[in-house]
Design goal:
This protein is 48% helix and 0% strand. By secondary structure, the protein is mainly α.
């Protein structure tokens, strides 16, 4: 795909706009014309991924979009916080971008007894930069806790690339993931329409209004461990001090790691992390995070990578 920028037009731009919209970055229309709205959406997406925020959709930005949107697959349901509907993220080997040694050392100096410099090259620098604030606010006080935390975040976010829940489901996949919400309705009317899907499946729970309110889509999963539902956004707002109810995209663009720390802290998962570094403990943490053991082998592998680095 060619590099796309303001002034570009055509089907490639329309596809770009649709991907941005599905991920929660509104391009102000999907008309195939790359205007100021599309540029602003690209910049917001780039900032959420730690990419150069120039508003130009080049190879790195397009690759990140493809990874985040899960194009060509239906395997897109991310873990929902307190929803009872745990989807399946696909995980893989932990990978990270290049990291600045100076920046990592500065972050390490700010973290409470955390060896953040050792994460350089194993975790994207944009993630490392978020750790000191999340650690201070939400109890990441030891390298053991940090290793468990990052292992889970890496799997749940497809190695720190997915920060907005992908609700772009086919009709068949909707009946597999959310069967109880599509009884006696035409599922085809919802297929491949993330806004309609979110508004229905998350309606009338977690503080959301009814389907017509659109709250389900507005407060869909965001962050590295998908913060979901208006009540959870309000509770996170109370802790972080910035209004994520009025501006829920902040969870994806500014607080993807902090919102995950909030989840761990609110659900007392640190107490499980403190039990040690065995596979059994990783399994227990996974059950608290995922509601099951999806991707357990990858989570264990992630933990060992991070724990060995942080020692």
């Amino acid at each position: 795909m060619p590099t796309l920028k303001q002034g570009s037009s055509g089907p490639d731009v329309k596809d770009l706009q649709q991907k941005l919209k599905d991920l929660g970055f509104d391009p102000n229309g999907t008309d195939g014309n790359f205007g100021p709205g599309t540029k602003a959406a690209v910049i917001a997406f780039q900032q959420s991924k730690g990419l150069q925020a120039d508003g130009i959709a080049g190879p790195a930005t397009m690759a990140a979009l493809e990874a985040a949107s899960g194009s060509g697959t239906d395997n897109s349901g991310a873990t929902a916080v307190n929803t009872g509907d745990a989807g399946a993220n696909s995980g893989g080997e932990v990978s990270g971008g290049s990291a600045s040694g100076t920046a990592a050392a500065t972050a390490a100096a700010n973290g409470p007894n955390l060896n953040l410099a050792a994460l350089a090259g194993k975790v994207p620098q944009a993630v490392i930069d978020q750790i000191p604030e999340a650690a201070a606010k939400f109890g990441i006080t030891t390298n053991l806790r940090l290793a468990h935390f990052l292992a889970q975040c890496a799997l749940e976010s497809m190695n720190f690339t997915a920060v907005v829940e992908n609700l772009n489901y086919s009709a068949q996949r909707l009946l597999q993931v959310f069967p109880k919400y599509f009884k006696n309705v035409d599922v085809n009317a919802y297929a491949r329409n993330p806004q309609k899907i979110g508004s229905r499946v998350y309606a009338n729970r977690m503080g959301n209004g009814d389907e017509a309110s659109g709250d389900g889509f507005k407060y869909r999963g965001r962050g590295y461990i998908q913060l979901t539902g208006k009540n959870n956004y309000q509770s996170f707002t109370n802790h972080i001090g910035e209004d994520c109810v009025a501006n829920p995209d902040l969870v994806a663009t500014k607080y993807p790691l902090a919102s995950a720390g909030f989840f761990f802290d609110s659900n007392n998962i640190w107490a499980v992390c403190d039990q040690g570094a065995s596979d059994a403990v990783v399994t227990s943490v996974t059950k608290k995070v995922n509601g099951g053991t999806h991707g357990l082998a990858e989570r264990i592998q992630n933990f060992k990578i991070f724990m060995n680095a942080l020692k």
